[in-house]
Design brief:
about 80 residues, mainly alpha
C-alpha cells in the first residue's frame, strides 16, 4: 500500500541550519515558507489582544500620528522662517 499523507506532499521549510548549512526539511506551515519551529505564526497579537497592552501610547497608529504632526510642525517652521 503506497498511501501518501498530506504532510508528506507539503512544501518544505526554507530555513537552513547554521551549523551544517542543510535545509530543515520539516513541512512548512500553510501560507508560510517556514515550519513552526522556525517562526511561522510567531509573535504576540497586536493591540489590546496582547497581554502586555497598557495604554496605547506606543502603538503604530499613535506613532504615525506623532510622525505626521512632527512633519507638519517642520513645514510650519520653514514657512515662518521664509516669511521673516
Amino acid at each position: 500500500m503506497n498511501r501518501a499523507y498530506a504532510f508528506q506532499k507539503a512544501p518544505r521549510c526554507s530555513a537552513t541550519s547554521k551549523r551544517t548549512g542543510k535545509p530543515c526539511q520539516a513541512p512548512a506551515v500553510r501560507d508560510w515558507s517556514v515550519c513552526r519551529f522556525h517562526g511561522a505564526r510567531g509573535g504576540a497579537p497586536k493591540g489590546e489582544r496582547n497581554g502586555m497592552y497598557r495604554h496605547g501610547l506606543y502603538t503604530a497608529k499613535a506613532a504615525d500620528k506623532r510622525r505626521r504632526l512632527r512633519d507638519f510642525l517642520v513645514q510650519v517652521r520653514e514657512t515662518i522662517a521664509g516669511i521673516s
